[in-house]
Write a structure and sequence with these properties.
Length: 256
């Protein structure tokens, strides 16, 4: 098993590239699973880690963990108060809008009550089409198949927000078994060697929990999405692993 790709680490937090298909931690929905990101990361760095936010199991990309409960609490507050900037890349069906704000309230999905009984909560996602491709194959009822590369910036943090918003707008993410279209999912899995949800968290910017310095993390794509981008002529949009931040120093008050 390959080690996890650690994007950034200091004495207070660690950021890692979560592989697609890996659950973050144990839950009631994870019966029978034996591999979890939290345990793998803990074993790899030899320190206890505390989750701060979530990524769906099939989504890959950058995740940050606190290395203490105190650091995790401050980071979590930043996420809940929308002080964190997040960007995702998604491959969707059709030619997506050049730029648009998707403002559709979403019912929460907590698994304890029918979704129809849950309140509809405000949800907003900004999307931008970065590129598109037209393939000379009939996948559905049209003689050609069109797909787009979309950058999504969620302004709120509802469960499955990007997946649900893009599907509702008519541009479902490829590989989304719940909100997508199976004929396109099968085409990508069988013909393009891309059998996963084509959604990746590629950028995260947040204030350090103890120094207040801004940390900007960029995360490269995994081999599946990278190969697909190269096939589609989208290599110019491939993100790279990078960290941008001023020098971080522990405040004197924390050194006592």
């Amino acid at each position: 098993m390959l080690p996890l790709n650690i994007l950034y680490q200091d004495e207070h937090l660690v950021a890692v590239h979560k592989p697609s298909g890996l659950l973050v931690h144990r839950s009631a929905l994870a019966r029978g699973e034996t591999e979890f990101l939290l345990q793998r990361l803990r074993d790899q760095i030899g320190k206890r880690v505390y989750p701060v936010h979530r990524l769906d199991r099939p989504t890959s990309g950058v995740m940050v963990f606190g290395l203490s409960s105190e650091a995790a609490a401050v980071l979590s507050e930043g996420f809940s108060e929308r002080q964190v900037e997040k960007r995702y890349l998604a491959v969707v069906r059709g030619k997506a809008p050049e730029q648009e704000r998707l403002d559709y309230p979403l019912r929460e999905e907590d698994g304890t009550r029918p979704k129809a009984e849950m309140p509809a909560m405000p949800a907003m996602t900004d999307i931008r089409r970065l590129d598109s491709v037209e393939l000379p194959v009939q996948v559905d009822r049209y003689p050609v198949a069109r797909y787009s590369l979309v950058e999504a910036r969620p302004m709120t943090g509802r469960r499955h927000q990007i997946r649900r918003h893009l599907s509702r707008r008519g541009y479902p993410i490829i590989g989304d078994a719940k909100h997508g279209k199976s004929v396109h999912n099968r085409f990508f899995a069988d013909q393009l060697n891309a059998p996963r949800l084509l959604l990746a968290a590629t950028y995260l910017a947040f204030d350090h929990p103890l120094t207040d310095k801004r940390i900007q993390l960029s995360c490269a794509l995994d081999a599946t999405m990278r190969s697909l981008f190269e096939q589609f002529g989208w290599a110019g949009h491939l993100p790279l692993d990078s960290v941008r931040t001023p020098a971080i120093s522990t405040p004197a008050a924390l050194q006592r």
